[in-house]
Amino acid sequence: LLRQLLLKPSIIQPPTSRTVCGLPHKKYDVIVVGGGHAGTEAATAATRVGAQTLLITQKIQTIGALSCNPSLGGVGKGHLVREVDALDGICGRAGDWAGVHFSILNRSKGPAVWGLRAQLDRDRYRQFIQRELLNTPSLTVLEGAVEDLLVSDPNPDQPGQHRVTGVRIVDGSQPIYSSSVVLTTGTFLSGSLFMGQTTSPGGRIGDPPSCAGLSHTLREKIGLKTGRLRTGTPPRIFKNTVDFSLTAIHAPDKEPTPFSYLNKNVWCKPEEQLPCYLIRTTPGVERVVMESLHLNSHIQQDTKGPRYCPSIESRVLRFPGRSHQVWLEPEGMTSELLYPQGLSMTLPPDQQLRLLREIPALQRVEIQTPGYGVQYDFVCPTQLSPSLQVNRVQGLFLAGQINGTTGYEEAAAQGLWAGVNAGRTAVSLPALALSRTQSYIGVLIDDLVGLGVTEPYRMFTSRAEFRAALRPDNADLRLSVRGFEEIGCVSATRYKEAVRVRDNLTDALSALQSISMSAPKWKERLKDVNISESKSSLLSALEVLQYKGVTFEMLTSALPEPISAYLDLSQRLKIEAVYRPHCEMQQREMERIREEESLSLPQDVDYFSLPISLSQEVREVLDRVRPQTLGAATRLPGITPAAIVHLLQYVHRTR
Ligand code: FAD
């Protein structure tokens, strides 16, 4: 079946070259290769910084396609979407336009780690992204396959240093030249698809892999180190063959929260959102997996797969005897299909059907498209700089799954940053880096270029040491202002709105700071709030807002001061108040690090047994390099600011 799906000429079209808007130039500032989540953000970001840009992708109809799950956001990932939006990227607005079920994950925890998430209507998402791209001024879109990169021979003055000068496309008689190229080929580089015992070349079902010339140039001509990773996707099933009476319904949030700072609402009405359904695997599922292992080539390979989104085969092999959760997720507002999240599999199609029917709610299920796996090459990202430029090739940037990450959000975030820098360098502006103290995008890129990957990398809030400050509610304050004033990728409209919010928040916070009363007086005004009367000093309204159960609305009714002008920011003010002490403490720690750059670090210490909180990777780097000073340690790749804080505290304690 896989072979049929892959090789039928009507499904796989031979790569051709067709422009949508004509190909007016033979030379561009930036060429972006690939119209997935990284490529679409890269192409639009490059134009926003002023670069004439060409996007070349295999099929225009798959621009913005969701290759796997029909959802956006989640814990850590929602932060990335908000940050991409704050830098004027497109995926957040697309999510608001296509979401059919919005919910905030992690709500029982603090707002710093809330995970904004939406189930998407696949067609609407794709339509939004395509419309956005085809209407972007300074962007030309070309349907075609890039066969190879044009790379200069190494510079005799700088051995091993190349320069990219453009690309060559399949069927293209002439090369197309550019100052920068962004490669975002996803799972397509030397891609192979797996189903049962059948293996075929491909980047995604229905799409051929990237041309061999690209891999050859990256590996052989430029000498980049590459690795191999894998992932997989579940079968898509017909909704009308599921017995919903045997599922648990999971309702969306009553009030959807938009991803984009520009949107007050999402497209669908709250009451029209669709539910998801929860079911669980049975011992029969495990039996089918075990009985079919010999028919399952993908699972027999050593290649590393996504740890946090494992196939059902990996789950069964790792945790025998357990029942696993499966979410049945809508594929669209009017779609007849469901996506069974948690059942990614590469068994032969008949065994896939057998496996699904072992679950009571799926006893009569029918499959529309079977699940399959993909294995692909990635480029070890330690060979990139924080701008996502390849260290040894001037003008060549990589973003997305090609850098060893997994997920749309991780791809979009890198794509935006690579596009910004490809555009800036092409128009003779310096490349920029985002720090991990400022953004999750900074954390993502710092982890990739500093530590590299051994398995598909996905974002989590636990990766960000400064998560109290890097919240989904404040990405506009962290990034939109800088995005306009320094980076140049943010529109004046968004900038003005971010400045308005910033100024109003500052005014509101200082107004709250200036109102003080004794604890008994506060208790009189806020009757049901448990404010400790043992406090002898005066309490400001800002401190009172930090109390559980106190809202900004309560303060506006309890106080005569005119603070109700800030009611539209009430949720943000509450969050700012709660996190303020923690963020101020972190700020003081960062300033202390800057002041103590020359502090000597002990040279005879065993970093592996130091009784402080350091990850194994950090211990290994410190042990290998043995930096002389705290400042030297801060500049080592893979050493996080949190590790530096712990190191600083340790040296002071033991002096
Ligand atoms: P993609 O979205 O893959 O886009 C690459 C684009 O480049 C495509 O449009 C392709 O046509 C184009 N292209 C490639 N080569 C060329 C060339 N030579 N010339 C021109 N165009 C080219 N993510 C998860 O988070 N969880 C999962 O469980 C998961 N499972 C997946 C299962 C499968 C089978 C696949 C295919 C992907 C899965 N993903 C999963 C990954 C998710 O789809 C990616 O993380 C995300 O799409 C990466 O975005 P990208 O822009 O890097 O690449």
Structure commentary:
- The protein is built from 20 helices and 24 strands.
- Strands 1, 2, 3, 7, 8, 9, 10, 21 and 22 form a nine-stranded mixed sheet that branches.
- Helix 3 runs parallel beside helix 10 and helix 7 runs antiparallel to helix 9.
- The protein is globular, with a radius of gyration of 26 Å.
- The N terminus is likely disordered.
- It binds flavin-adenine dinucleotide.
- The site of flavin-adenine dinucleotide has 39 residues, from helix 2, strand 3, strand 13 and helix 10.
Question: What is the topological layout?
Answer:
Blueprint: H1 2-7, E1 18-19, E2 27-33, H2 37-48, E3 53-57, E4 71-73, H3 77-86, H4 91-98, E5 99-105, E6 115-120, H5 122-134, E7 139-143, E8 146-151, E9 162-169, E10 176-183, E11 192-195, E12 198-201, H6 212-221, E13 226-233, E14 236-238, E15 248-250, E16 276-280, H7 283-291, H8 312-318, E17 325-330, E18 337-341, H9 349-356, E19 367-369, E20 372-379, E21 393-394, E22 396-398, H10 408-426, H11 440-451, H12 475-487, H13 492-514, E23 516-517, H14 519-525, E24 539-540, H15 541-545, H16 552-558, H17 570-595, H18 616-625, H19 630-634, H20 641-654
Parallel strand pairs: 2-3, 2-10, 3-7, 9-21, 10-22
Antiparallel strand pairs: 1-7, 4-6, 5-6, 8-9, 9-10, 11-12, 11-20, 13-20, 14-18, 14-19, 15-16, 16-17, 17-18, 23-24
Helix pairs in contact: 2-10, 3-10, 3-12, 4-5, 7-9, 12-13
The chain binds flavin-adenine dinucleotide.
